[in-house]
Automatic annotation (TrEMBL):
SMART domains attached to this UniProt entry: KISc
Binding site for ATP: G92, H93, S94, G95, T96, G97, K98, T99
Biased composition, class Polar residues, residue ranges: 19-36
GO biological process, one term: microtubule-based movement
Family affiliation: Belongs to the TRAFAC class myosin-kinesin ATPase superfamily. Kinesin family.
Example of a GO cellular component annotation carried by this entry: kinesin complex
Designated name of the protein: Kinesin-like protein
Tree of life domain: Eukaryota
InterPro entries linked: Kinesin-like_fam (IPR027640), Kinesin_motor_CS (IPR019821), Kinesin_motor_dom (IPR001752), Kinesin_motor_dom_sf (IPR036961), P-loop_NTPase (IPR027417)
Pfam (any one): Kinesin
Residues covered by the Kinesin motor domain: 3-442
Amino acid sequence: MHPLKVYTRWRPLTEQETPLSTTTIPHNPNYSITLSNTNPNPNTNPKPWKSDPTYAQIFAPTSTNQDIYETVVLPTLPDILKGNTSNILAYGHSGTGKTHTIFGYDFAHSPELGICLSTAKDLLDTLHALNHSSSDPLSKKREDKLGLGVRMYELRQKTAFDLLNSRRPCHVREGYDGRTHIRGETEVLDEGKVRVRPVVAKACWGFEEVLETVRCGLGRRATGSSGVHDLSSRTHAVVELEIVSWSLLQAREGVVERESELVPVAKAATDVYLREHMRALVLGEGGEYVVDPGVRVDLGKIEEAEGRKRVFEGYVKEAEERVRRVFEGGFEGLGGRVVFVDLAGSEYFDRSVRVRQTPQEVREGRQINSDLLALKEVIRARALKMARIPFRASPLTMVLREHFVPAERESYSAMILTVSSAAEQVDATLNTLKYGNLVGVAGKGGR
């Protein structure tokens, strides 16, 4: 596990804004920031605020998305190509450039890509070279062709919405294996089959496919008006870029199909068990149910149903084994992921921002507060190597659990604070920097 790094990106001023007085102090190896006029009221004495030396890099208002990408993400790509995971989170109040940093504006036509798309482009360039390398045996088989699986979903309160599947609601649950699963609504198929699909992974073999996929997903994001911005993010948007192959996608689809076959068989076994045992119960004199000694439970029927259930459970295990064999026999980078999280606008976390809200927005704000506090505590617990890490504290941290603690893989995490250099937004900027300071200290195992 590696310490979480915190970066700060200043937003450029508009012509109508007054610059905020700040000082960046370089330390070895990190930076601290001092805000001199944290109280813009001219009738009071300004009270400066100084951070700990927690920021790995300070990006000036003139910095581009490419600068951010080359500093924060690009150094991690060799590890992604070895199958590891990188998590990049953008935090700040609405209007400071979180979405611009992750995706870019008008990315289908603008030459300045967001860091998510720059990552996809460079990964696909490398995978394309592997696919067409005459010296690489993987290029000889179509099923071993490498590409990117793209997932896009957003978390609103306690529900995930699949942005690549018509924004269908999904449930965030912890499975019997201790892992977090995000699964859609139950689909009833022919012959009693019941299928519950995970979040859609769109297979992309070229950069244009990624552009179109991300564009469609962004078009389904939920936004609203706040006291800071007309298009405030009321949700946490998550984008996963995973290195996949044809054979891996097919093997995973096999698991979904076998699970759908198991469900009706398992239900039938449960029904047989309950029916046989209920048949042997009678209502006693005291009004309670007691076993009727004259009725024998047909254990043969129960065992027959349970045996059929075990057969189908075996089919599921065989399908899961095929997935494992694909990983073992394929490219070492299979399953390597870069996860980008565009966190909800932090003005909901900032009590100094007075916003007229509906009851629904109040509930959303409370959940956002809970999510962001839980995230800080998870980062702190991981850095201190605590025995219990509070992933279950919020849906956001439950989802990130799979990326912070990938099975048998390394993970790298970074947070990019997007802040305004305008004096008019000093309170929101100060709260963002304070949160980033806490996360940076916690990420190093501090308070």
